[in-house]
Amino acid sequence: MKEYFHSVNLDKDKCRGCTNCIKRCPTEAIRVRKSKAQIINERCIDCGECIRVCPYHAKTAINDGLDIINNFKYKVVLPAPSLYGQFDKKYSRDNILFALKSIGFDYVFEVAKAAEIVSEATRQLLKNNEIKKPMISSACPAVVRLIQVRFPGLIDNIVKLESPMEVAAKIAKSEIHEKYNIPMDDIGAFFISPCAAKATSVKSPYEKQKSNVDGVIFIKDIYLKILSALNNVDNTKKLAEAGADGIDWANSGGESGALGTEKVLSVDGIHNVIKIFDEIEADRLSDIEFVEALSCTGGCLGGPLTLTNVFIAKTTQKKHMSEASKKSINGIYKRSYKDLVWTSNVEYKPVMKLDQNVSKAIEKLEMLEKLYEELPGLDCGACGSPNCRALAEDIVRGTANETDCIFKLRERIRGLAEEMVELGGKMPPVMDRDK
Amino acid sequence: MSTIKLKYEIPANDFIIAGEASSNVKNKLTQIGVSADIIKKAAISMYEAEINAVIHGNGGYAYVEIFSDKVVIKIVDSGPGIPDVEQAMQEGYSTAPDKIREMGFGAGMGLPNMKKYADKLEIYTEVGKGTTIIITVNF
């Protein structure tokens, strides 16, 4: 099995071992051990919930750093649609793209433009009766990884089309290669990302062998640079080409809104996504052909590595959409969806399974149930597991002890203390003078 | 050979709790490592039986036993019973009152769905006394 790479990481010096992250993690992938949080790699889906909730900012995302662009002679920047919503409304999309380019890039290609191409391909897929419905968007890599570990029954529903980021990198590189006759290997494509999950999908893609993207830079890390470059923008430069349909992908409801059908559902926030997936897995969602599921509340504009409050960013994004034409100004590239189909596939990762052998797993589950019965059920997290049931599971897996529960420990101490008092009252017969 | 025995209370007319037992069983089957399509069969057929007990049966109990090769789900209610089982097995046949239908239930697919997803379906019913449904899904 391939080794797990994760962008979400822990800064041990900052972590105080509190229970905020373990309780919010949608896959119960974090434990506190030796007063530090520990991520169980196999379970982590890089959704970034822990980055968002950590009060000490100890959860970070592994960063390629801006210097990475110097590894390539010709540098392309691929801004996520969510970048536009980060700045003051007075800046136009042309301003932002110009400022971004001036930081050190030779070429800008809006991911929003590629998003329109993916929308067109999705519309083609929707018409295909052989494709399993409801189709579930693969735009959010955290959601795809959630399906991998928790919803194996939905793997066939995933839209197996490359993400706008990948499409953008591919098109930009071939455009440059053809226009300026620059060798492909000299062209580096860098994605400006609102989240850690995108960085993971570049480093270890599930849909193919190697990503077209050469590096990921987080919005929070490049924000200040863009901001200062915005002070001397050239207002005559026209760089914005994407249409409102593509820009709207940053919002929850944007991707599904571009499909031209009412039979769509859009859900955002990883815990809400889980509830909807439960419904789909149980066949209880009728008359829906496409599900747009985004890990972050509000969509990518609410990404854990963005800077502007998601609700403020939404109004700014709306402004940019109203200034754009509905579709990309050059018209989108007419191509068959087949060019975008994944060349490899996601596999079920049975991380919740207790044992490889069914009979043994049953024995373990039985033990787990008994242990759980005995635990206080307060779900306090003081043992380092997210809740009492998870502690019971950890005990069965051999990674925790019953006395890790402070209530259990106290009960034991009390029992011992009582026994000591009782023993203390007993005198050996040779010394007992009253007898 | 060890098995796991589980018991759940199904409260009458409580649509907030309805479905919790089957979703709980689904998680347990996942932990055991049962394949996704089999879990789906068990979860859907149990959900239908559970909802039936909520709507028609005045609530009741679910008894679930997980073996290494199958899961047996027994849903027991003390409701009015089913006068004509054959009729009730027909798709679209429903005796659910309007207020239940307004909530999106009572489409007459409960028993047909159980039949569709269960490997073995047993129905024991007596008018005025109640209904017991036994669903078996093989791994």
- Strand content of chain B is 25-35%
Query: Which two chains touch over the largest interface?
Result: A-B, 23 and 26 residues
Give the topology string of chain B: H per helix, E per strand. EHHEEHHHEE
Global morphology of chain B: globular
Largest sheet, strands/sense/barrel of chain B = 5 strands, antiparallel
Q: Compute the average pLDDT of chain A.
A: 92
Shape, principal axes of CA atoms of chain A: elongated
The residue ranges of chain B in which pLDDT falls below 50 over 5 or more consecutive positions are none
**Number of strand segments of chain B:** 5
Q: What number of domains of chain B?
A: 1
Estimated radius of gyration of chain B: 14 Å
CATH class category of chain B: Alpha Beta
The helix content of chain B is 25-40%
Oligomeric state of shown chains: heterodimer
Q: How do the strands line up in the largest sheet of chain B? A: 1-2-3-5-4
The ordered string of helix (H) and strand (E) elements of chain A is EHEEHEEHEHEHHEHEHHHEHEHHHH
Provide a concise account of the structure shown.
The complex is a heterodimer of chains A (435) and B (139). With 435 residues, chain A is an alpha/beta fold.
Structure description:
The complex is a heterodimer of chains A (435) and B (139). By secondary structure, chain A is α/β, with parallel strands linked by helices. Chain A has helices at 20-24, 49-53, 93-102, 111-127, 141-150, 164-180, 196-203, 219-229, 244-247, 254-257, 270-281, 310-323, 358-374, 388-397, 406-424; strands spanning 8-10, 30-33, 36-39, 59-61, 74-79, 107-108, 135-136, 187-193, 215-218, 264-268, 290-294. In chain A, the strands form 4 sheets. Chain A has a 4-stranded parallel β-sheet, with helices on both faces. In chain A, α3 packs across α8, α4 (111-127) packs across α6 and α13 packs across α14. The longest helix of chain A is centred in the C-terminal third of the chain and has 19 residues, at 406-424. Chain A starts with 7 loop residues before the first strand and ends in an 11-residue tail after the last helix. With 139 residues, chain B is an alpha+beta fold. Chain B has one domain (4-138): 2-Layer Sandwich (Heat Shock Protein 90). Chain B contains 5 helices and 5 strands, in the order βααββαααββ. Chain B has helices at 20-32, 36-55, 85-88, 98-102, 110-117, and strands at residues 4-10, 60-66, 70-77, 120-126, 130-138. In chain B, strands 1-2-3-5-4 form a 5-stranded antiparallel β-sheet, with helices on one face. The model of chain B has no long low-confidence stretch (mean pLDDT 88). Chain A: GO terms for molecular function: 4 iron, 4 sulfur cluster binding; metal ion binding. Chain A: InterPro entries: 4Fe-4S_dom, 4Fe4S_Fe-S-bd, 4Fe4S_Fe_S_CS, Cytosolic_Fe-S_CAF, Fe_hydrogenase, Fe_hydrogenase_lsu_C.
